[in-house]
Specification:
The protein is mainly α and about 220 residues long. Helices cover about 75% and strands about 0% of the residues. The protein starts with 6 loop residues before the first helix and ends with a helix.
Length: about 220
């Protein structure tokens, strides 16, 4: 049996466990009852936390339901920060997506794919979830733009490359998720990502935007 840590580290661990429990409870309740059947009180009860604790983490049930989706954005951006400096921006974004897919759904993680697929189907069908998802997507993409700008050493307010890179990469990922959610095979996500990003590479070879820019400097 492990020893419970005390102090700031222990509090952070307990806070993270509570958040994960609420996200899991919210997702389970959505899949069991539909969005109308999910309440904040029900999420808190199933997660074993108080209503007040829930409110410290999430403004509403939609945000709790999409908690794992929010983490997806963070994981992709964390992977993007760690890509080699000499890698072209669009390739770096694609490789960050590959890291997320491998970390979340590789090996035993593949067992989570059916529920995640159903979650994205619900996002498509439920306007409130779709709106909350769009807010998460916008926030994640804004952070991606900042990361790409730092990689290039440019100001994203005056240099369009970070925004264009992220708009292209994130738009492709959105198309992947849409195609996946409208299909029938939960295990198809990685193959669809390869297909769609491969099509993108065929339309505009990765790195060509950098070459074009350097030719006009």
């Amino acid at each position: 049996m492990g020893i419970e840590k005390t102090g700031p580290d222990g509090r952070r661990q307990r806070t993270q466990r509570s958040r994960e429990a609420m996200v899991a409870a919210a997702t389970d309740l959505l899949l069991e009852r539909g969005l109308d059947g999910v309440t904040v009180e029900g999420i808190a009860e199933r997660a074993g936390v108080t209503r007040r604790t829930f409110s410290r983490h999430f403004p509403g049930k939609e945000e709790a339901i999409l908690g794992e989706v929010a983490e997806t954005g963070h994981r992709i951006n964390d992977a993007l920060r760690g890509r080699p400096a000499d890698e072209s921006p669009l390739m770096a974004y694609w490789q960050a997506v590959c890291t997320w897919l491998a970390d979340d759904f590789g090996g035993e993680g593949a067992a989570a794919l059916p529920d995640r697929l159903e979650l994205f189907r619900r996002i498509d069908r439920e306007p409130a979830l779709f709106a909350a998802f769009q807010h998460l997507r916008i926030d994640a993409e804004a952070e991606s733009v900042r990361i790409i700008a730092d990689r290039l050493g440019v100001d994203p307010a005056t240099d369009p490359r970070p925004a264009v890179t992220v708009g292209t990469g994130a738009g492709t990922l959105t198309a992947v998720l849409r195609a996946w959610s409208r299909g029938t095979d939960p295990d198809a996500l990685s193959a669809l990502a390869e297909q769609y990003f491969g099509a993108l590479a065929g339309l505009l070879p990765v790195g060509s935007a950098d070459q074009h820019h350097s030719q006009h400097e």
